[in-house]
Design a protein that fits this description.
11 strands; 10-stranded antiparallel β-barrel; 1 helix; about 5% helix; about 200 residues; Porin; mainly beta
Length: about 200
């Protein structure tokens, strides 16, 4: 997918990496925690690009929350070297479908910047920005396992980015720490990742 992006940046459409989405917030009676910090690593299957993600969720009240995210994706396929950085700031809300199920939606501003070299020469890849829209549901499958299913659309300037489906499984290690394993897929790529979430 990274190589497709570089090949098509000069054309009207291109495929860009997406931000991994963080869940939303908490309502009265909800079993979910929504103020947290998280860190994760991942790998994209087609180019074997490595990624690092940092995220946070901040609860304002029983309905509204903020989302913040940072991602760094690196790939080297000689003579190409690419570092793609993504930033995300969003606002979301949620509602309870059942005691153990939340439905949420988030709208975010996203910004992508690229440091691209071919044979050690900077080729001046342009930066782009736009908006992402996500809907999803959080489900407590058991007292220690949470599933987060999401669908994400990203609209970035004049570029076409495939919609993505994602699933994130959170396993409680302690009351304050959870281990996460996630998978997302689109027409262009599949991404596997693991991470830790720290609840506050």
């Amino acid at each position: 997918m990274i190589l497709l992006l570089l090949a098509s940046l000069a054309s009207p459409s291109a495929h860009l990496p997406t931000l991994h989405a963080a869940p939303s917030l908490q309502a009265p009676g909800s079993a979910f925690q929504y103020t947290y910090l998280e860190v994760g690593i991942g790998r994209e299957d087609r180019t074997e690009a490595d990624s690092l993600t940092l995220g946070a969720s901040l609860e304002f009240n029983d309905t509204w929350f903020a989302r913040f995210g940072y991602g760094l994706t690196s790939v080297e396929v000689a003579p190409l070297s690419l570092d793609a950085t993504s930033l995300q700031v969003g606002l979301g809300l949620h509602t309870i479908l059942a005691k153990q199920i939340d439905l949420y939606g988030v709208a975010s501003y996203v910004d992508y910047s690229f440091d691209t070299t071919v044979g050690g020469i900077d080729i001046g890849t342009p930066n782009v920005d736009g908006f992402s829209y996500e809907v999803g549901t959080r489900i407590h499958a058991s007292s220690w396992l949470e599933l987060d299913l999401s669908y994400t659309i990203i609209d970035v300037e004049d570029f076409s980015i495939p919609d993505s489906l994602g699933i994130n499984a959170l396993v409680d290690v302690t009351s304050a720490i959870s281990f996460s394993a996630n998978y997302s897929t689109s027409d262009d790529s599949d991404l596997l990742g693991i991470g830790l979430r720290f609840h506050f």
